Amino acid sequence: MGQLVKIVFRLVAASDGRPITGDDLLVWIYDRDPFQDDLLGECGVDANGFGELMFDLGKVSSLDSPGETDPDVYLEVLRAGTPVFRSQVKRDVDFLSRHPVTGMAGSLTKDLGVFEVGLGSTHEWSNQTSFPRRARTQRQSRVIRALR
Length: 148
Hints:
Layout: E1 4-13, E2 25-31, E3 38-43, E4 50-56, E5 73-79, E6 82-86, E7 109-117, H1 138-147
Parallel strand pairs: 1-7
Antiparallel strand pairs: 1-4, 2-3, 2-5, 5-6
């Protein structure tokens, strides 16, 4: 087992800034890679639109990115099993950085910030112009079928 790290974020409506929540909401967080993106995990959001995911940093190293420690992270939001939003990729998220003067370790929690999600028809999903290449795992397919 490698180093446990945490990603936090918030989802709000693009139209009015209200938190996006719901029992039918699921967020998948990925590491973007050249051939197949790595699913780091999935989570929901709380009543204020905040979500968090703790995962093993060792998950970001794969056949198409051996030795990687700084993942290129993006999230995909599903409502009732249907993708409704995909964030832009945040490149080289550095969980293992150290302060340049003191040498002390930085935070193992990274805040991806606030994502403004449109709630209208599909043409309003501003960040959903093209989905990255990746294969769905069997578990993801089962989750989608169960939510339908």
